[in-house]
Amino acid sequence: MPFDTEEDAIEIANDTSYGLVAYIQTRDPARAERVASRLRAGMVHINGAPLRYGSPFGGYKQSGNGREGGKFGLEDFQEVKTIHRPDAA
Q1: What is the value of pTM for the model shown?
Q2: 53-74 pLDDT, tens digit each
Q3: pLDDT beyond 70 at 89
Q4: Nearest 5°: CA angle at 40, between 39 and 41?
Q5: Pick the CATH number of 6-77 from 3.40.309.10, 3.30.70.2860, 3.40.50.2000, 3.20.70.20
């Protein structure tokens, strides 16, 4: 899909109801990082980078909220408890 500017590319990519994964191909590492941070997708692959074992898996928008895998996936199964103790005498 053609675009004129980096801003156009980001708008086109984000103009969807879904956001599981996005892919960026560029020779410019700074551009890749800049664009990746602005994409509304749960995962962004730069220049064909593979999914890393143990990394969080999940999307944005209608691709679902929440994550499976990694420490973020474990948080769904944890319960937080606060214990209040009296001050030491």
Answers
A1: 0.77
A2: 888 888 899 998 778 887 777 7
A3: no
A4: 95
A5: 3.40.309.10
Around Cβ 14, how many Cβ atoms within 10 Å? 15
Whole-number Å distance between alpha carbons of 65 and 58: 7
Distance from CA of residue 65 to its chain's centroid? 10
Task: Report the relative pairing of strands 60-61 and 43-46 from DSSP bridges.
Answer: unpaired
- Give 27-56 pLDDT, tens digit per residue: 999 999 999 999 999 999 999 999 888 888
Task: Confirm if 55 and 72 have CB atoms less than 8 A apart.
Answer: no
